[in-house]
Amino acid sequence: MGNMVKDKVVVITGSGAGIGRDFALAFAASGAKVVVNDVGRARDSDEFLANQVVDEIRAAGGEAIAATQSIATWDSAHEIIQKAIDAYGRIDCVVNNAGIVRDRFFFKMSEEEWKAVIDVHLNGSFYMSRAAAPHFKEQNGGSIVHMTSTSGLIGNFGQSNYSAAKMAIVGLSKSIALDMAKFNVRSNCIAPWAWTAMTATIPEDTPENKARVAKMKKMEAGKIAPLAVYLASDAAAHVSGQIFGVRANEIYFFNQIRMIRSLHRDGGWTPETIAEHAMPAFESSFFPNVPSLTLTPWDPI
């Protein structure tokens, strides 16, 4: 492909399959040394999926090693980053891609379903980023690419755990961008549209979910990788704290929450004056509660 991230050391979580695998292959093809992280195993051989991806990369002439620890604990996340340091002497980028889904309507969701998703998506993204941070500071540079989702940015049915984690990752990314800017460390988010092993678990139990799945099946996971490679490269040195999306051949740039209207009242407000004056003034600017698919009704190209 090219040399946009030549000799950069990149840890990619959840890269044994799906979007993560495509990330690993794309980074390696662009010159990076890749740490392929995944806890998953192949169904037919029980071999770690990460080892299979490493073999693919090496067969194509690239450099890669496998790390099969979980990202969902502090210690194991640090072990993954240390493995990169031990193998290649540095760490330049972390791609927080690993994820699971436990879809359930909010009123039916169990504590286990809530915690499992939060642990992998949100805690895993924090642990991995935090483990890399001292190394980024010492070398005065680095990049973190997080996976968010329109389920958090916009909303979706049956995904309160996933939506909460993915919206929290946006806040985490922004905080990292602010806290680490003086060390030339960048942090950005990508909201991917793609059909993967994870999204294949979405139940088709409602008309809305059936329509959503039908469209997602048209979207190739490999289309997401070029943006991730760019964000890890020196060409993106000026890009931090931003939110992007990829949907087939479309790239989105998302706005972020800002105040859009204000209303002042001398002497302050009471519940009654809020009901009489404030809410009627704001209601024309209210956002409708719609699932993310409603805002992308056109077919992907």
UniProtKB/TrEMBL annotation:
InterPro entries per record: KR_dom, NAD(P)-bd_dom_sf, Peroxisomal_Beta-Oxidation, Sc_DH/Rdtase_CS, SDR_fam
SUPFAM superfamilies for this protein: NAD(P)-binding Rossmann-fold domains (SSF51735)
UniProt domain Ketoreductase: residue ranges: 8-206
One Pfam family of this chain: adh_short
Region forming the signal peptide: none
Similarity annotation: Belongs to the short-chain dehydrogenases/reductases (SDR) family.
Stated name of the protein: SDR family NAD(P)-dependent oxidoreductase
Origin species: Aromatoleum petrolei
